[in-house]
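A further point concerns the way the authors explain their paired sequence and structure data. An entry of this sort, consisting of the sequence and the corresponding backbone structure tokens, reads as follows:
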Amino acid sequence: MSESMDRVTGLLLAGGQAKRMGSINKGAVQLNDRPFAELVIGNLSKQVDDIVISANEYASYFKPFGFEVIKDKREGFLGPLAGIESAFIEIPDIQWLFCATVDTPFFPGDLVSVLLKKTKNNNRLCVMPVHNGRRYPLHSLIHASLLPSLSTFLDSGERAVGYWLKKCGVLEVEVEAPFPAFENINTLEELSLLKRNTK
């Protein structure tokens, strides 16, 4: 957990349409008898001060988890940036927002503290993990002061998370972690592979 002056809110991004998996609720997908949502929330709860869930059409599924559930304020499923913007707007006391996708349950257990330390040491307002040469913008730590920039970016018709973060001067941080740290599930084949490797 962070000090009070650096409170971190975890944002579970679960509002996508999951078209490559037949437009299902990814949060309810089972991995070794536990739903993705439960796995990610369990990981998040050990690293952040509070949690908010961006769920859109599956909001009713996530309410029993006991955290605030929000929907995009913009219409049309504009992607994860719309969920991030809505979290900042709906919960105005957020200081730092750490993003976590509902289909990536095994991100490192110290990731938030590592990213927060990097922001402070380098005087940055956003920081993004890099693992094995691949960037993970949807596991970034973002300061609330970037909300105006985010809203302007979305107003312009842009949607790319990595592009917006780059415009904000994101710090990229190499993170070492064993498999399946940043493995995410977009297809049934990927789910089957992860099940075989995480028993």
The helical segments are 36-45, 59-62, 80-90, 111-122, 147-155, 161-167, 188-197. The two ends are 29 Å apart (CA to CA). DSSP finds seven helices and ten strands in the chain. Residues 111-122 form the longest helix (12 residues).
